[in-house]
Amino acid sequence: MPYAAAKDGSRIHYLDSGGDGPVVVLLHGFGMDAGMFTPQLEALAPDFRVIAIDSRGHGRTEEIEVEYTFWDLARDVAAVLDFCDVRDAVVGGVDQGGMTALRFALQRPSRVRGVVLVGTEATALRPDIAREFRMLLLDGWALGGRPLTEILPWYALKFIGGDPEIQHGQHVSAGDLDRARLAAAARCFIHREDLSVMLGDITVPALLLRGEADSVATDAQMRELAAGLGGSVRYETVSAPTAAHAVTWTHPELTAGQLREFLDLTTTSGDALSTSGPGH
Fold this sequence. Notes:
It contains ten helices and eight strands.
């Protein structure tokens, strides 16, 4: 299994479709792992080289530091690209993966050809939402003794969507993670800072995707994110009753066209997108 070494000695695990095509880096949501991008690994290769990374606290990555931020996760992306001898890439993610992608674009703008943001926001959590997440994710799940059977079905329904019989298994399997590992990831997620004033510095093309039933990343939040970015933006709402937060995982057939079109444009003609609203 491939690992890249981070500066602090952590071993960052990733999946790599290989090939000589333009590189796409994909970053998963909280509680999941790189396997959530199996549909994209299969659909985009061999035209694109797809690299999906396990973030700290998830999957097979072996982190050293007890505490970290999304800025640290962005540096892990750079470590993987360096190890793979990749100069630049389109970088995207779902939920917290998109938050990491934004920070990577700010840290290393010359290495980013475009960003794909799925169910992502740039703001800090509101105090009431932070309290709710602290109670459920940190106190109840990562540090608490509540049975995972009580927590994960609700969380999977909210943070994944789709068909529970088909898509929730991978997320529920995240309950097998060491809870102490997940605690650090939860603190990273809950205590993130607001990036709104920095978004204008991200001038590469952006594709924003949101499932119409997403109750985590609202339409208003996604529109605010789109308006703040400094480059051309395409914002698409994926229309299906069960299309929610992890829409590229639950509805790959409805997102493949937008993703491939964006990648074709971004990796061949540069900034060739125009701003558009949901469904356009």
